[in-house]
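Training component of the fellowship. As part of building independent skills, the fellow (R.M.) carried out the full modelling exercise for a liganded target. The chosen ligand was magnesium ion. The inputs are recorded below so that the supervisory panel can assess the work.
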Amino acid sequence: MAEKLLAVKGMNDILPPESARWEWLEDKVRALMARYAYRNIRTPILEHTQLFVRGIGEVTDIVEKEMYSFEDRSDKNGDHAHLTMRPESTASVVRAVTEHNLLYEGGKRLYYMGPMFRRERPQRGRYRQFHQIGAEALGFAGPEVDAELILLAAALWKEIGITDWRLEINSLGQPDERALHRIKLIAHFEQHANELDEDARRRLHSNPLRILDTKNPAMKAVVDSAPRLIDFLGARSLAHFDALKAILDANGVPWTLNHRLVRGLDYYNLTVFEFITDQLGAQGTLCAGGRYDYLVEQIGGKPAPAVGWALGVERVLELLQESGRAVAPLAPDAYAVVPDAAALPLALRTLQTLRAAGVSVQMHASSGTDGMGSMKSQFKKADASGARFALIFGETELASGCVAVKPLRAGKAEAAAEQTLHPLADVTAWAPVLLA
Ligand code: ATP
Ligand code: MG
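Fellow's submitted model of the complex:
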């Protein structure tokens, strides 16, 4: 036998029945997004590397060390394209919106779902191919849209039965407000240089704000005593933040202020937020978002405000499983038992009619050479399929122009509610029996 080939490390197959949970979540998201009037956008998985360098920022973990990038073979004119498999989708959405001029007639509310790629150390809740669902609202400057996005995420948790979350918020103000804070922040960290880890020392002058969201517990004290961004915000920034908080309060969405919640780049401003759970260990951030009013311009578009979030599908599904939320595995309504291969043409025609009427039917499949297999083995498969009914295309039934419907999941008492015969001539009329 040839050597068995395995998947790439950190990139997972999503197999049935687990995939049913994914479909279930995706269906819930689609329905919810429609209720908030967010429309689906699908962008390519490959983009020019430059998009992410500009759209995520050079001094970030993602761009510094996590991207899957490669040089594409030269095309006719000899240009090599530097391409990257998207590590996130905000930059792509902004590019698409700009490229297709989607904001010329006003704002746009968009959502996406799909795989993202980051070369990180695989561990629980952290993979190299993972999936995000994201919502972005572009062209809207007001705090009510920040609030709408947070309410949308909270509604999703409610809809899918996640109760163990907390919302942390902060405001980054505007770049000019941050400039003064930055000077004080660097001074503070320089004063405590001996308490900084290597990462922090490296970021001290390139991206000091990011030191605040260190995960190193040894730096807790130096970070907790650092100057707070909120103390540097002007009246307009504070008003935006207050308006957001008022809407959250009016909607009963609890929040806590986290002064350490930051994004290190100049095109992020005002609102930042994260939904966090304590149930998933170190990888507890379910959903992260905020405003990025200067990113559209950064990517070459006409300046436009924007705000959005992205959630990690694997983490959300793991949390659902942790909290015991069961999603029923998929089972067909009926399983077709066909004792004799000669009945297959008629049987398959009947199944087509049933399926067209909305019934899900699994057909018994032969091993190819030895006929259809014994009735006993067919019924064993019918049972294993989880179907509630067996459809029996037996000789006697067919001779009377009928198919037998046998309940498979009836309790002992109902066992007497034995099988019933239904005419092959009028399948659509009795199809609802199988949906009951
Ligand atoms: P973290 O601090 O956990 O690395 P991040 O700041 O890199 O997160 P974002 O870029 O904000 O994450 O992505 C949004 C969400 O996507 C995260 O909150 C998380 O739920 C999920 N996510 C990010 N990276 C991964 C990954 N490698 N594997 C699985 N999920 C991920
Ligand atoms: Mg990360």
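The panel noted the following from the submitted structure. The chain has a mean pLDDT of 94. The chain is about 35% helix and 20% strand.
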